[in-house]
């Protein structure tokens, strides 16, 4: 017999392509198992403001291809307070909700874990939904693949104009703490240098590499992840420009376009898999865990562990990115 009778689903923190396929899978898997469903608009804000509505299979029709999240998302300071959590709990309880699926990043999971420790009768299952790909316990997070493809598409276009004008471009991509998007997009587009939060790049080394590239290539692209220790792309460009006066230097900040767009097939399948597994795990009585994909298998990881930030960029990709750009 199922350990849950009614599940609430919400999306929280930054939106990520693939959230909608995941919501769809959560709702339909619950329906299939005769578990009732409600959706919460705007993440924890909606929990506190009681913005909660009944969902069924038809509530999630025709959303597989949509970016963003039909449930909307928000950041909510009030949920960090005991009073906010109590209001959220009471709003769920009065509807008979006994389990919650939260789709989001590390902040969302931190909030969910605190909430579940405060109210252990509310089972919690996390789904990693963040373009940053920075959660331990899943090889990939929802939205990372789509965001990387968006960056690759933009870089290909920038390469055309960079080549035509013999320019040096500094492109800033998302990644405050994790350089996953920068690294994969850089390898995909043959970037001449990739600057990552995980790697200390000395400006002197970058200048030497740019100068040596200028002698053999018509254009150069340097990818700067937001969290690189030398500052953003403008700061890095400024420092390099002074030393390579003969190069026409341009800066592009890709910004929020990286979050949008229709989810890739990979993110649609990943969202479906994770949503399906989240509901099945709750039905089996699991709580305070995150569903993730590891080695192409679904695995559950304790939320506490998922938050340990043990995530590490692949050594072979780091090594290869330097070698292949010579
Ligand atoms: P992304 O990785 O895309 O930024 P995220 O889930 O990490 O997504 P955050 O803004 O960090 O996004 O967190 C989302 C929400 O989770 C916050 O607005 C807040 O409501 C809740 N939250 C975060 N940390 C806590 C905490 N310590 N206690 C309670 N709630 C929290």
Automatic annotation (TrEMBL):
One of its GO terms (cellular component) is 6-phosphofructokinase complex. The keyword Membrane does not apply. GO terms for biological process: canonical glycolysis; fructose 1,6-bisphosphate metabolic process; fructose 6-phosphate metabolic process. Mg(2+) binds at residue 106. ATP binds at residues 14, 75-76, 105-108. GO terms for molecular function: 6-phosphofructokinase activity; AMP binding; ATP binding; fructose-6-phosphate binding; identical protein binding; metal ion binding; monosaccharide binding. Allosterically activated by ADP and other diphosphonucleosides, and allosterically inhibited by phosphoenolpyruvate. Gene3D superfamilies: 3.40.50.450, Phosphofructokinase domain (3.40.50.460). This is ATP-dependent 6-phosphofructokinase. Keywords: Allosteric enzyme, ATP-binding, Cytoplasm, Glycolysis, Kinase, Magnesium, Metal-binding, Nucleotide-binding, Transferase. Substrate binds at residues 130-132, 167, 174-176, 226, 250, 256-259. The gene is pfkA. It comes from the Bacteria. The active site is at residue 132. Homotetramer. Residues 6-282 form the Phosphofructokinase domain. It comes from Mucilaginibacter ginkgonis. Pathway: Carbohydrate degradation; glycolysis; D-glyceraldehyde 3-phosphate and glycerone phosphate from D-glucose: step 3/4. It holds the Pfam family PFK.
């Amino acid at each position: 017999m199922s350990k849950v009778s009614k599940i609430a689903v919400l999306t929280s923190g930054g939106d990520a392509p693939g959230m909608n396929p995941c919501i769809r899978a959560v709702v339909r898997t619950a329906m299939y198992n005769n578990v009732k469903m409600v959706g919460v608009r705007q993440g924890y804000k909606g929990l506190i403001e009681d913005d909660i509505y009944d969902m069924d299979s038809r509530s999630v029709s025709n959303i597989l291809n949509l970016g963003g999240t039909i449930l909307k998302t928000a950041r909510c300071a009030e949920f960090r307070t005991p009073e906010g959590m109590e209001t959220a709990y009471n709003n769920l309880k009065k509807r008979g909700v006994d389990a919650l699926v939260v789709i989001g990043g590390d902040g969302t999971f931190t909030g969910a874990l605190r909430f579940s420790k405060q109210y252990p009768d509310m089972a919690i299952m996390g789904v990693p939904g963040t373009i940053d790909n920075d959660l331990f316990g899943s090889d990939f997070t929802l939205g990372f693949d789509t965001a990387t493809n968006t960056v690759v598409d933009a870089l290909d276009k920038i390469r055309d104009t960079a080549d035509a004008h013999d320019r040096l471009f500094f492109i800033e991509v998302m990644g405050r703490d994790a350089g996953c998007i920068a690294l994969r997009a850089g390898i995909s587009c043959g970037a001449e240098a990739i600057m990552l939060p995980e790697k200390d790049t000395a400006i002197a080394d970058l200048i030497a590499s740019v100068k040596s590239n200028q002698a053999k290539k018509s254009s150069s692209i340097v990818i700067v992840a937001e969290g690189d220790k030398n500052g953003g792309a403008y700061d890095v460009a400024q420092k390099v420009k002074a030393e390579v006066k003969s190069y026409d230097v341009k800066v592009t900040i890709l910004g929020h376009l990286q979050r949008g767009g229709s989810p890739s097939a990979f993110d649609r399948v990943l969202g479906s898999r994770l949503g399906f597994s989240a509901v099945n795990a709750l039905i089996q009585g699991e709580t305070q865990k995150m569903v993730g994909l590891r080695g192409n298998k679904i695995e559950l990881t304790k939320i506490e562990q998922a938050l340990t930030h043990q995530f590490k960029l692949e050594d072979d990709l780091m090594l290869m990115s330097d070698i292949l750009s010579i």
